Structures are given as structure tokens and as C-alpha cells.
């Protein structure tokens, strides 16, 4: 328990709407033991209650504006006005700056998604929020909500691909990684045609990328998606015969 607590530290944040300084928790890099990484990059740690994604949303206790570090640095006057009307005027002071459980983190992500939609943040930023919210539901074994938000994430990632804003949300995101991720999210949604198409796009980088790990993952998941697709067709066939 002591180790767990020392992994957390307080970070000072300035609200990007009302400019009030406040404090929020973060997890020290390298302080957790990685246990498993899902094929869509969701990382599980041995310290189950301590995933860094619990803390990636900052919520201003004063005005209710919720944002991640990837949000645009400043709001335009028009955006500030709409945040004032739709968020701050309805906000009762609430502090998310201490240790967060899954449910609290979910509330933070929902606030950040609302703020991101109102202030027109880049698609990649919105995609990252939807995906991580899906993962929080995965941790709770709530598959229906997980897939609902993964559906929204893939939509935003596809826009991000078309508009090439994917460098904005995540420094580690490259074109091939994004194509692979879109494929994998479609696969999880049972949208095998799209999954296979995007894995194929990622595999086109086979001879031109140094990201050989992603190429291997794309090959494996492409194979898996093809098998799942065949299974589905078989099942459909059976259904037809029965019907
Ligand atoms: Zn604020």
C-alpha cells in the first residue's frame, strides 16, 4: 500500500478556461509493473488500481472545465463563452484531485469528452478520450459500454486519419500505428471487413517501416480477423439453414 501511494504525485495545473491553479494526481513513470498489453495498446499493470489512464484528465474544481494535456493550449473567445454557458454556469464545486477509482475516472472522462466536443478539439484528442473511456469499462467487465465507446473512438480515429491530425493527440502515434489501431478496434466491434482493410493498409508499410513490432501485430490480428470473419459466415450459414 505504501509503495502504491508513493507511485502517485501531485501535479500543479492551470485551468485552460478560468486560469485557476489546481492540483491533480499523476502516476510516476516507471513506478508500475506492466502485466499485459492488449492488442489495442491497453496496458494492464500488476497494481490493478493504479493505471495511469485514471489520471490523464484534469478537472478544474472551480469551473468544471475538464481537459487532457493534449487539448489545445488556449480556448478561443467563442469557445470560452460556450464553456461558460454549458459547463461553468451549471458547475457546483467538486474536486477530482485525490485518488481516483474507476468510477470517478469514468466521470472525469465524460466531462472531458463533453468539453472536447464543445470546444472542437482535434479528432485524435477526442479519439484518445473515447478509447480510454472504453478501456475503463473493460476493467469493469462492462462490455456493452466498452464497445459503445470503442465505436466512437474508431469513428474519431478514422477522421483523424483523413485529416492527418493524429500526431496531435499522442506523440507516439504514427500512420502505421494508427492504421493498425483502427483495424484492431473494428475487429473488436465485429466489423471484420473494415478490420481486414485497415490491417492491409498497415501491412503495405511492410518494407518501408522500422516499426516491425506493429507489422507483426498487424499480421497476427489480420489472420485472427479473417478466422473470425469465416466463423461468422459459417454461423450465418447455419442460421440460414435452420431458418
Ligand atoms: Zn477552471
UniProtKB/TrEMBL annotation:
Alphabetical UniProt keywords: TPR repeat
TPR repeat boundaries on the chain: 176-209
Protein's UniProt keywords contain Metal-binding: no
Name of protein: DUF2225 domain-containing protein
Domain of life: Bacteria
Pfam families: DUF2225
Keyword Cell membrane in record: no
Amino acid at each position: 500500500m505504501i509503495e502504491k501511494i508513493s507511485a502517485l504525485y501531485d501535479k500543479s495545473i492551470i485551468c485552460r478556461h478560468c486560469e485557476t491553479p489546481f492540483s491533480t494526481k499523476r502516476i510516476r513513470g516507471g513506478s508500475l509493473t506492466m502485466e499485459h498489453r492488449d492488442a489495442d495498446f491497453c496496458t494492464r499493470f500488476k497494481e490493478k488500481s493504479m493505471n495511469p489512464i485514471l489520471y490523464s484528465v484534469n478537472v478544474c474544481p472551480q469551473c468544471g472545465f475538464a481537459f487532457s494535456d493534449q487539448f489545445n493550449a488556449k480556448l478561443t473567445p467563442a469557445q470560452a463563452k460556450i464553456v461558460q454557458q454549458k459547463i461553468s454556469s451549471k458547475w457546483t464545486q467538486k474536486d477530482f484531485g485525490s485518488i481516483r477509482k474507476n468510477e470517478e475516472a469514468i466521470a472525469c472522462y465524460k466531462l472531458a469528452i463533453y468539453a472536447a466536443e464543445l470546444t472542437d478539439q482535434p479528432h485524435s484528442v477526442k479519439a484518445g478520450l473515447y478509447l480510454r473511456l472504453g478501456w475503463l469499462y473493460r476493467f469493469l467487465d462492462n462490455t456493452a459500454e466498452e464497445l459503445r465507446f470503442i465505436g466512437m473512438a474508431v469513428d474519431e480515429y478514422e477522421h483523424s486519419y483523413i485529416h492527418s491530425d493524429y500526431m496531435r493527440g499522442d506523440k507516439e502515434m504514427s500512420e502505421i500505428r494508427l492504421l493498425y489501431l483502427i483495424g484492431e478496434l473494428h475487429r473488436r466491434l465485429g466489423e471484420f471487413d473494415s478490420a481486414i482493410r485497415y490491417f492491409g493498409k498497415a501491412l503495405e508499410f511492410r518494407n518501408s517501416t522500422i516499426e516491425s513490432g506493429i507489422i507483426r501485430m498487424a499480421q497476427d490480428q489480420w489472420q485472427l480477423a479473417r478466422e473470425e470473419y469465416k466463423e461468422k459466415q459459417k454461423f450465418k450459414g447455419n442460421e440460414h439453414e435452420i431458418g
